[in-house]
Amino acid sequence: AYHVDTSNVSEVSDWACKRGATLTHCNEKFTEALELLQNHAELRNEASDYSRALAFRRASCVLKSLPFALTDVQQLIGYKDIGEHVRKVLADILDYGSSPEVEEIRNSEWFHKMKLFTNVFGVGPAIAKSWIDKGWQSIADVRLAGSISKDWRISWGLAFYEDLLTPVTVQEAEAFETLIRTEMKKISPLSIVTVTGGFRRGKSNGHDIDILMTHPDEGAESNILSKLMGALNKCDLVLKGYFTKNTFSSEMLSDDSKKGLRSHFDHFEKWIGICKFPKSFQTDRKLQSVRDSSTTLPESAQQLSHYSGTIQHQDVLPSEHVNISADNTMSPCSKHTFKTDDKQKSLTLKRERTEMLEDSSPKSKRFKYEDLSEKEVISLANSDRNWTARRVDLIVSPYSQYYYALVGWTGSKHFNRDIRLYAQKVLGLRLTSHGLFDMKKGEALPASCEEEVFRHLQLPYRDPTERNC
Ligand code: GTP
Ligand code: MN
Ligand code: MN
């Protein structure tokens, strides 16, 4: 026997949200295999598969946070998230270069088809299984069948399958972000626009683009989304999507039995859909994001960051404004307060309030492609076009919930799952995208920056790039 260094074991937390995980790490060969097993369990979606999937993900997260490349399973002694099954998989990879279990799944036709079909927008494991049961092997088979679903997401998802499967690039995300900022500047200059999701965590591509918006004047955020969508429609960028209203109410907090806050879904106003991204989004250097160029901000971004104080910069340069003093008093957020001249701000607010009243007519706004028939959607997809269809999530949060929404919509999904469970088990608090709640005292713990969310949770602050659990 040889000596295995386990000195680091006692220092490593059981919680992924405490450890953090970056996009790249030195155990990718192992985490790729474990996440394939996770994915397989999720697709099977039978009785015990959810907890199996979770167990694989937890184990993968341990490996992501190891400061060394695994060379011996003994190095994992003491980690509660590494069970017998995982240990066997890792030992196989270490001993033979691959795990038979993993390779069998990787080469299985069922797994291949399930992945193929669940990649269609709107298709989950149940529908994918029913397609396999029909004997369909490929997207072409499904397309041939025609009219297979009343769900518009599936008809659009099938028609634009190739577009939507091609990853959204950072260039496209930044071009779209710039466009949204420019439009929002016209609609509501004080509004705050942030790209969240994988891009905020530093990913170089993604399956969609997630944008969170708010307005520093509580309540004024409620009309920005329909206006924004109207503006995007005018630019002919909206293909198809759906609005959900804000259904959050504080009564949900006191009622434990309500499914609402227990579920990981939130209750924000949002638009989930598919947009046209002109091909120029992929190359246009004029549409550079504030992210690349803090000195030469595009005009719209400059205006916005002027109006909204340091908030914009905080979103762009998360670490620069963290300013936790030695005695840990509440100074970090004093830096985030609005610098804007109060008089000017109140004038702008007044104008926006008036506009809001003028705009309160019933919404019969129709988008250009909203009512296309299935055939028309297919011919649109097959037409000669200079744009790509892209999945877009636009979320609107009241400012009082904004920093919790930011954490929730930045993810990763597993980071959220872990930090929420941690809040519940360790602190007895309920964390959602709407806030942090002490159910016993009937209190909410407000936060005026992301750092404060972590402070309430008694966790070290994690930069978005360290939330890739
Ligand atoms: P890619 O889009 O594939 O790059 O990954 P992503 O991490 O951006 O995933 P996704 O766009 O699916 O979700 C972004 C973040 O928003 C994740 O952390 C999700 O947990 C979160 N999210 C997605 N949908 C919802 C939802 O309905 N409610 C809440 N609260 N969060 C959601
Ligand atoms: Mn995303
Ligand atoms: Mn999304």
**Percentage beta strand:** 5-15%
Rounded average pLDDT: 84
Total of helices: 22
Number of strands: 10
Percentage of residues assigned to helices: 40-55%
Bound molecules: guanosine-5'-triphosphate, manganese (II) ion
Strand order of the largest sheet: 2-4-7-6-5
**Which blocks of ≥5 consecutive residues have pLDDT under 50?**
287-341, 354-362
Shape: globular
Radius of gyration: 24 Å
Major pleated sheet: 5 strands, mixed
How widely separated are the two ends?
Answer: 33 Å
Q: Which class best fits the helix and strand makeup?
A: alpha+beta
What do you see in this structure?
It contains 22 helices and 10 strands. Residues 287-341 and 354-362 have low confidence and may be disordered. The longest helix is centred in the middle third of the chain and has 18 residues, at 170-187. It starts with 15 loop residues before the first helix and ends in a 13-residue tail after the last helix. It is an alpha+beta fold and 469 residues long. Helices cover 45% and strands 11% of the residues. Residues 197, 208, 210, 393 line the site of one manganese (II) ion. One manganese (II) ion is lined by residues 197-198, 206, 208, 210.
Keywords:
binds manganese (II) ion; 22 helices; 5-stranded mixed β-sheet; alpha+beta; 3-stranded antiparallel β-sheet; single chain; binds guanosine-5'-triphosphate; 469 residues
Short description, anyone?
The strands form 3 sheets. Strands 2-4-7-6-5 form a 5-stranded mixed β-sheet, with helices on both faces. It has a 3-stranded antiparallel β-sheet with strand order 8-9-10. Strands 1-3 form a two-stranded antiparallel ribbon.
